[in-house]
Write a structure and sequence with these properties.
two-stranded antiparallel sheet; alpha/beta; 7-stranded mixed β-sheet
Length: 493
């Protein structure tokens, strides 16, 4: 009997997905361009399992039943295109290639169209959860033709993580690049979450003088299942901060170099937001913060030149400030997610994907890196109002923000007074302020400046209103002032 699914690529994710799939009753054919990876796997964790090695692509494809289902777990970019071109001659009409890597969504759109012309189906699939998730159950975000998804829906549902209510953390996302787009935004939100938590830890350390063990205890309390901040990232922050360096017996986090690397998905999210004209300042600030961390030598040099002054001791009640930090982090998190969902909404309209925001949030509740109690609330809000204009105005979040926004302001103020930069917290706060401002005076000034120096034109507000004047056809009425004649009448132009 031929096997059910094939996997190409035997890195940690590929190996663990193979084990996961096999454990659910499916046979798996495996292949890697590195023969030693195949031998090591089949003689190790895959030994005595229904995981069959293939040492050529011809052998690999011939052992798969039609329609063949092939999961690529290889490096994104050119390697994916090269592998696709090698597979095409070995496949028939209706066979399916699944890209489970972190591919750029525009590449996925291009590949899906290319393969469809060759009568081959293609699914760009976001997979989140790291090595542990791949083995025990990831969050899966498949995008492509529904016909293609139907071929693997049963497998995906069985291997995916299950939320606390038993619902699989997978659902059909949308056409062509939708799955990889949603995974990209997931990663951007992940960047934001990590930076916000890091800034919170930094402030607790500097303002209150807490050591890693004490902050770990706070994180453990915040990760209580009944707490609004309960999440995987809060959990591992607490667990990690308790770890001690074996050589020095100091806390490992204090010995960890302040340099954060990245693989590019966060940068793609920011670049895409610029392209689609969607502000995601918190996510962007998290990317910039990682970039700043990589300028270690420059930071050391400048720190010797610019000597910062800061408060020495927090004069308020520490426990009260812990509560302030808790609520500030939650509000900042709402703001960051609102930005991410706004980006998905814009892309959904641009590409005609018809993304279901409630289903996406539901699929992130287990398995993925940003899994959190909070996501169930997002799901509920979108189920109640699928046309929600922005997550900030969802009743459940709006009520909390309205009552507690001052706490985010206070947290930022205290952080700055102790010399702690809170770039993501600042952006989360200012995003809310700008969204809630009926008049952005800075935009009024910039509009006049552009018309003054470049004759770019500007719009006017209706008399006695914050709304912009429109023509009869619904477009904005544009104006231009001849500034040189008005301000410098003595000059002849």
């Amino acid at each position: 009997m031929k096997e059910k699914i094939g996997i190409i690529g035997l890195g940690p994710m590929g190996r663990n997905l193979a084990l996961n799939i096999e454990s659910k009753g499916y046979g798996v054919i495996i292949y890697s361009i590195v023969r030693s990876e195949i031998d090591s796997f089949v003689n190790g964790k895959a030994k005595n399992k229904n995981i069959i090695p293939a040492y050529s692509l011809e052998d690999f494809t011939s052992n798969l039943q039609h329609p063949k289902k092939i999961l690529l777990m290889i490096k994104a970019g050119i390697p994916v295109d090269e592998m696709i071109n090698k597979l095409i001659p070995l496949l028939k009409k209706g066979d399916l290639i699944i890209d489970g890597g972190n591919s750029f969504y525009k590449d996925t759109i291009r590949r899906e169209k290319y393969l469809y012309k060759n009568n081959i189906l293609y699914i760009g699939t976001g997979v989140s959860g790291g090595e542990e998730g791949a083995l025990l159950g990831p969050a899966i975000m498949p995008g492509g033709k529904r016909q293609a998804y139907s071929l693997v829906e049963d497998i995906f549902k069985k291997i995916s993580a299950k939320a606390s209510d038993g619902i699989p953390c997978v659902s059909y996302i949308g056409e062509d690049g939708a799955g990889h787009f949603v995974k990209m935004v997931h990663n951007g939100i992940e960047y934001g979450d990590m930076e916000l938590i890091g800034e919170c830890v930094w402030t607790l350390k500097k303002a209150l003088g807490y050591d890693a063990e004490r902050i770990a205890g706070i994180m453990r309390n915040w990760n209580n299942p009944s707490d609004i901040l309960s999440s995987y990232l809060i959990e591992i922050t607490g667990e990690g901060m308790r770890e001690k360096d074996k050589k020095s017996s100091n806390y490992l986090v204090d010995r960890t170099a302040d340099l954060t690397r990245m693989k590019g998905t966060g940068t793609w999210a920011v670049a895409t937001a610029l392209e689609l004209l969607v502000p995601i300042p918190t996510i962007a600030s998290a990317v910039f913060s990682r970039e700043m961390s990589q300028d270690k030598d420059l930071r050391l040099e400048i720190s010797e030149i610019i000597k910062l002054t800061s408060s020495n001791k927090y004069n308020g009640d520490p426990k009260e400030f812990e509560d302030t930090a808790h609520d500030a982090l939650y509000i900042a998190k709402i703001s960051s997610y609102a930005q991410g969902f706004a980006l998905m909404d814009a892309a959904s309209k641009e590409y005609g994907w018809k993304l279901n925001m409630g289903k996406i949030a539901q699929g992130w509740r287990g398995g993925c890196i940003i899994r959190a109690q909070f996501l169930s609330r997002i799901t509920e809000e979108y189920e109640s109002n699928p046309s929600l204009p922005n997550l900030l105005v969802a009743p459940m979040f709006l009520n909390f923000i309205s009552k507690n926004l001052n706490k985010l302001s206070k947290f930022i103020e205290v952080s700055h007074s102790f010399g702690v930069p809170t770039i993501a917290m600042d952006c989360a706060y200012d995003y809310i302020l700008q969204m809630a401002s009926p008049i952005m005076v800075s935009a009024q000034v910039a509009a006049q400046q552009r018309d003054y120096f470049g004759a770019h034109g500007y719009f006017k507000l209706e008399d006695g209103s914050h709304k912009i004047e429109r023509k009869d056809d619904g477009s904005y009425q544009e104006y231009h002032t001849k500034w040189m004649e008005k301000c410098y009448p003595e000059k002849k132009i």
